[in-house]
Specification:
Helix content: 40-55%
Structural class: alpha/beta
Mean pLDDT: 97
Number of helices: 18
Shape: elongated
Strand order of the largest sheet: 1-9-18-17-16-15-14-13-10-11-12
Strand content: 5-15%
């Protein structure tokens, strides 16, 4: 799914009005009715509604929602906040329509003293500004929203965007923002939804299809995307009847050190579950019995060092190479990573200590083969690319890094962000807090390795691997709980994830 900017969405609204054709007020009616239908289908029918409306088009949406809910015999009260001298044309049309229902009480507000006292069991709908805001909130409107935020309610719902929050960059936004439990977004998610600092305002978000012009959506380019199951299913290669293990490549995993051999085991098991035909794990001597016992399907390449990775094995025979899980930061390991980077003709997959080694030797980054995949968590990325003050700034830094060095970056976390050498970003839709556990990243590295060994492109590896990792984690959380799950559970439920994706 494409993630458009606010300006692009406005253009798509205009194109829909032009090509369908449909009037703007009828498009507003269609969008707002989708919201009312969602509310009717998901929230109790015995709750009273307090609808807060601005005087622009977001306020017009709120008036339509209030009218539809009142027609369904719901108890609705509307407060109109006159923050600007003018009203939009569609707002005015819908205000006249709502005024025809005498059962809906409409209160006009021009200062913060007119804030309603909320029934703790009511449902509050925020239709004050939506995505139309271009400056931080202050003055009496900010006081009004702040007062609403402090009062309890059964649910607080934002229409399209929480009022006060910008759809993309909130770096300089120091104003008050409506705190929603649920945000009902029209047609597309907003970029701001993917950033942790905005979660207290956005809450849980839902996408409502309002029927914008399909051809215009398809022809409009987007820099950001939201990964969905259908996107991934379309990428999966079917396995042919006469395939054999050689068909699916020979992967090399360089992992483990004394005391950290579990990382090698997790990565190896994940690579095999991802479908690698053959797997060799390069490990220090101390890990030989561990890997050969825990992963009998894998072959072992034994490093001459007893405790750590110190020597890059011959790599010409492998179809994919990953390095990093559990390696440690020994000086000989750092030298071996340098040799690996210099000698590999393949795009590498680098994680964990391989990234930490790059962070301490930044001149080596320029020697990475184009389309190498880096899989940092936020702290590893900060050490690699520099400091940032918020998630939006971090994403811009991530994109710049990918473009400069021609690499893919999988920045792990909620809505894991994949940045590409061409400047595009993809946000993942799967995964859960239970995956914030030791070894989860090692599993992702193994999955990526197993996919790349089979001939998937680096971009396909990033998209499939990230989505698959989160999907298996979601199945594991459903079976084990988010608190009780461990990284091995992600591997255990990989079969069910493949079945869901058709692999």
């Amino acid at each position: 799914m494409k993630v458009f900017t606010v300006d692009q969405i406005r253009a798509l609204d205009a194109l829909t009005i032009e090509h369908e054709p449909i009037t703007s007020v009828d498009l507003m009616e269609r969008a707002a009715r989708q919201c009312a239908q969602w509310i009717e289908g998901h929230l109790p029918k015995d709750k009273a509604f307090v609808v807060l409306c601005g005087t622009g088009n977001n306020g017009g949406d709120g008036l339509v929602i209030a009218r539809v809910l009142a027609q369904k015999k719901r108890n609705v009260e509307v407060y109109i906040l006159y923050a600007a001298p003018d009203c939009s044309e569609d707002f005015s049309v819908n205000l006249k329509r709502l005024q025809q229902n005498p059962k809906v009480k409409i209160t006009t507000c021009r200062d913060a003293s007119e804030v309603p006292s909320l029934d703790p069991q009511c449902i509050v709908i925020d239709a004050i500004f939506g995505s139309g805001l271009n400056r931080p909130l202050n003055g009496w409107i900010a006081e009004f929203i702040s007062s609403i935020n402090k009062q309890p309610a059964f649910k607080k719902i934002a229409i399209d965007m929480p009022s006060g929050l910008f759809a993309e960059d909130n770096s300089d936004n120091d104003g008050t923002v409506f705190r929603a439990h649920i945000t009902l977004s029209f047609q597309f998610p907003k970029l701001a939804f993917f950033f942790a600092e905005n979660a207290p305002f956005v809450g849980e978000w839902k996408i409502l299809n309002i029927g914008l012009h399909k051809a215009s959506i398809e022809s409009t380019k987007a820099k950001s995307h939201f990964i969905e199951s259908e996107d991934i299913k379309a990428l999966i290669h079917p396995r042919e009847c006469f395939s054999h293990k050689g068909t699916f490549g020979h992967a090399l995993l360089i992992a483990g050190s004394q005391g950290k051999m579990g990382a090698a085991v997790l990565g190896a098991r994940a690579a095999l579950r991802a479908g690698a035909g053959l797997l060799t794990v390069h490990i220090p001597t101390c890990g030989t019995n561990i890997v050969q016992t825990a992963v009998p399907e894998a072959m072992a390449s034994i490093d001459p060092d007893q405790k750590c990775y110190s020597e890059t094995p011959p790599i010409g025979a492998y179809s994919a190479i990953a390095a990093g899980p559990g390696l440690g930061m020994n000086e000989s390991t750092q030298n071996a990573i340098k040799v690996l980077i210099q000698e590999s003709a393949l795009p590498l997959i680098l994680d964990a200590d391989a990234l930490n080694i790059l962070s301490e030797n930044k001149t080596w980054i320029s020697f990475l083969v184009p389309e190498t995949i880096l899989t940092p968590h936020p702290k590893e990325f900060e050490r690699l690319a520099g400091k940032f003050s918020n998630s939006y700034e971090r994403t811009q830094l991530q994109v710049a890094f990918s473009m400069k060095y021609r690499v893919y970056i999988i920045l792990k976390g909620a809505f894991t962000c994949i940045s590409c050498p061409d400047g595009r970003t993809f946000f993942n839709s799967t995964g859960n807090p239970g995956m914030a556990t030791a070894g989860s990243g090692d599993v992702l590295t193994g999955l990526l390795l197993g996919l790349q060994s089979q001939g998937y492109t680096p971009l396909e590896c990033c998209l499939i691997g990230t989505y698959f990792h989160g999907l298996a984690g979601d199945i594991a959380a459903d079976r084990r709980s988010t608190t009780g799950m461990i990284a091995s559970d992600i591997i255990e439920y990989s079969g069910k994830a493949w079945r869901y994706l058709g692999g």
